[in-house]
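Q: I'm teaching a short session on how sequence maps to structure, and I want students to see two examples side by side rather than one. Could you give me a first protein with its sequence written out and its structure tokens following it? Keep the formatting plain so it prints cleanly on a handout.
A: Of course. Example one:
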Amino acid sequence: MIKSSRKIHRGFHFTSNYFVVSDGIMIHYRAVITQVKSPTIVFIHGLGGDAVSFEEEQKKLSKLGISSLAIDLRGHGLSGDPVGADSYTINRLSKDVVEIIDELSLKSVIICGHCFGGMVSMYLAATYPSILSGLMLVETSFRATCFGLNESFSKRLAKTFAALAYAFPKGMAQEHAYEDQYRQSNDINLSRFISDAKTTSLRSYLFCCSQVFSFNAKKILKNIVVPTVVVAGENDSFFPPEMVKKTSDWILDASLLVVPGVNHIMVTNNPEVLTEIITKFVSGLNL
């Protein structure tokens, strides 16, 4: 079931859609479907983000005749907020995206995932390769590597986050974060982190943190068989270029692009740069 309505926000025309996925959770996404035949870029945001993160990219792509969807992952934005840890696994989040793609019968789909959304995108591409024509992994890695954490400590941290999440109530209402003050922000910004957790709900945020730190895609990267570009920000504190390069090296048909002078928030800080990368990638696929 899909519920749709036309919306305009800051001159951006899009369709606001709600779709109930197979476990009963309502997933929201913003769609811009052009009248010309084109590939569809499916954007998947990072931890604590939402569909609004890609507003500028969607606006710029629509002017170029390229269709796009920007999905609110469950527990984020306007999507439903389930209460249990099992509802936030990487597997379940990727299924949400796949079910929307199937429901809309989208062809020539290119997934573009940022940060945590990139982890979901890796899993999706490795598990459901037949539905994709291309993959863009933006400022992400096969596992959480921020601040040099080793894998053993990351796993312990994941368990702590999952246990702590149950101490907080389910979010009462979901919302989008229209926070222009955080555009051009640094990677480490406490007020932005607090805002992300508030609009996500602290319980959902912690469950997703647990998924970030337990994730390791090294064994499944070989199953990604679509053309892939892996994008790193030169100044990214969370996923530094040397770790992003390892992700690129382990994917068969992947290229690495390191963007000078860019931090982890490329999606909102440098939308024109990301849009240019997307359009070049699409043009090279000959779809």
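Q: Perfect. Now a second example for contrast.
A: Example two:
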Amino acid sequence: MKLLVINPNISEDVTALIQAEALRSAAPETEIVVRTASRGVEYIETRFESLIAAGAVAEIIAEHCGGPSSERVDGVVVAAFGDPGMPALKELADVPVVGITEAALCAAALQGQRFAIIAISDRIKAWYRDCVDSFGLGSRLVSIRSIDETLKTIGSVQTDFKDTLLALSRQAVAEDGADVVILAGAPLAGLARELAGQIPVPVVDGISAGIRMAEAVVGMASGPHRSGSFAPPPPKGRKGLPSSINAALADVQSAQAAAAAS
């Protein structure tokens, strides 16, 4: 199995954290291909920044789902909490595309009735709440607690604020009644392992959840979307799109037409 793991942020430091946790989480036979957005922002905090990131993510997916067979992958993990471009990106690829938010929420829902999210900034909370609501799990979210200090660098959030993140997690359990804690965002990748045993409920890492969920969905071999709301966009005139996007759209539209004719 070959999984494409995309950092929608431009931070190579965060990509390194993502790659390390992805490799720790993946099954031995799973090949991990990690890519970083070529444009955008250092880390995504707002809906608009998510919009910017979505286009960069789409191009990376297109390069691996509509190009030479040697570059093709079996599944994709969008490795930023908030799932930039999701679920629309599912329409572009003929392989499973999993966001770490949806993966983390599913993992939390399997382990408890009520969950809390620990975030890296106050500004990010509104967007995260929108994401949880979009998955229909708003009633199970007890709180989003966040760091309220200025970040030094995005790649050092774990080391700079480990004690704060631990305290926020414990507060979410003791004061908010969380059955599960989600450490949100790629900058926190791997921290759940480091805090193991220090938080009295299950702790979910988004990257780990994304990798394991993607492996499970790919392994199920359920088949691609050829109809329904996640079917490829219908053929129509296009202008100014990257060649990779055009190629990927042509591929999935051709496959959809062939399936309809059979």
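Q: What should students look for in example two?
A: Point them to this: The chain has two domains: 2-100+212-225, 101-205. Also worth mentioning: The mean pLDDT is 93.
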